[in-house]
Amino acid sequence: MGSRVSLPPSSGFPRLSPDNHEVTSPSTPRYNCIAWAAGDQRRWWWPDPDEVAYWPDSAPRRETIEAFVAAFGTLGYQPCDDSAFEREYSKVALYALEGSPTHAAHQRSDDRWFSKLGRSVDIAHALDALDGPLYGKAVLFLRRANNGGSEGPLVGAARPSESGADV
Amino acid sequence: MSSATVGINLGIFTGTIEWDLVDHDRQCLIRVLRKLPSHEALYKPLLGEYAGEVVDSIQRLEQFLVEESLKLPEGSKVEKTLNVLAGFCRGFLGRAKEISQAIIHYVNRFTRNAKSGIEIPSDWKEIIEHYEQVGGPDLMTNKRLNIMDIQPPGYQHQFLQALGQLRGSFGTVLSIICPLSHLEIPDEVQRMIEYAPQPRTDPALVGESDRVSGDEFRRLATEWKSQSEFLASPSAIAGLPAYQAIIEMGQAAVPLILGELRREPDHWFVALKRITGADPVPADARGDIDRMAEAWLNWSRGHGIES
């Protein structure tokens, strides 16, 4: 696999190790995990009460799991049973800590998951590598058909497989 | 007709004004000066003033000045002066309304979140309880809310600044035209100047927290960036202690934040909104950090804030 770049140990991600993740992009504050999972690399997505972040108009601007499901619903995602890789679907995992959403990862081209970590880097990782006191764990999975008519537009996005990730 | 020439020095303007006053102008000015003592919001010490009463008083004063100006021939010196003074009043009322709407927005938003079981910043829990006890966050109508109890502190500071600017403007204009009109300067006019807070120079009104050092700001900014590196939620990012400490610095932090935003765009938007009460970002630019930074930097230029 050549020279893999990995994150240093972090108390927020006690399970993260060089064996279960790889950094795939430089840091940027321009988009976050939700935007990345939604295919948008231009905006920060979040239903924040200060209304500084982007959030789809038709989804409630509330920091709840339901609001995130509604937001991904605008892109054609629907809840599904599990994280198992299905070739004909893209999947999103919603992470939550004590019931509050914290993070999203997406799985598109293979059975690896891809995350943008806050304003830090993008990584490719095992699903449970981010479990811990910062993000909690994946609590809900959503999927949409890869070639389905309900797919929403990608905005300024490069799919993980096109971004140089080699995992 | 009375005539006078007075030399003045306003720092930015040095010169003389010739002031020939016809009788109806002079009589009108006397009526205005006699009326001023009934508008205590213009000159009273700030302690003990209530937000809704201050607003009421300035609204009545604005109406009075307009009514008096309409009694004079168009273009007379006093008619023009009264319109300028009425404009100062409207400027204050507009700013007070903006500040009030910003507080109402946050109180309503965080109250709804709390009722839905969504965690809200701890300082806002106290602020919501405070407004429940004093009759609500509408500064325009609340006659139980002492202006020294306006929360959060950044908005109180803005309200006091707006009132101070109004007082200073009235005091300056009247202290010039009274001698020109051979009228004694009323005590109230002297007090308008005396009680007009000067931006970031009056320690009693500005407070220690507003005299912020660049070094302290940069220390907090570095701490905040480190602690928020992996967070996606603007609420969580803004809830970190270092970020809250920057918000508590108030207006004095705004030029430093804008300088940081110009140097390296980052998530300073919650702080800017909460401190200034403004929101210059178009709805379609939300989340787009470059467009948001550009909107705030344009806003700062429009408000004469150097970063």
Any overview of this molecule?
Chain A has 167 residues and is mostly beta strands. Chain A has 2 helices and 7 strands; from the N terminus they run βααββββββ. In chain A, the strands form 2 sheets. Chain A has a 4-stranded antiparallel sheet with strand order 2-7-3-4. Chain B is mainly alpha-helical. Chain B has 2 domains: 148 residues; 95 residues. Chain B is built from 13 helices and 2 strands; from the N terminus they run ββααααααααααααα. In chain B, strands 1-2 form a two-stranded antiparallel ribbon. In chain B, α3 runs antiparallel to α5 and α11 packs across α13. Chains A and B meet through α1 and β4 of A and α3, α9, α12 and α13 of B.
If helices are DSSP runs of H or I spanning 4 or more residues, what is the number of helices of chain B?
A: 13
Largest sheet of chain A: 4 strands, antiparallel
| Cα separation of the termini of chain A | 8 Å
Q: Sum up the overall morphology of chain A in one term.
A: globular
What is the end-to-end distance of chain B? 50 Å
Strand order of the largest sheet of chain B: 1-2
Going by helix content, strand content and strand pairing, the class of chain A is mainly beta
Give the number of helices of chain A: 2
Give the quaternary arrangement of the chains.
heterodimer
Kindly state the percentage of residues in helix of chain A. Answer: under 10%
Backbone shape of chain B: elongated
Unreliable segments of 5+ consecutive residues of chain A: 149-167
Low-confidence residue ranges of chain B = 199-210
Count of spatially separate domains of chain B? 2
Average pLDDT of chain B, rounded to a whole number, is 84
Give the ordered list of helices and strands of chain A: EHHEEEEEE
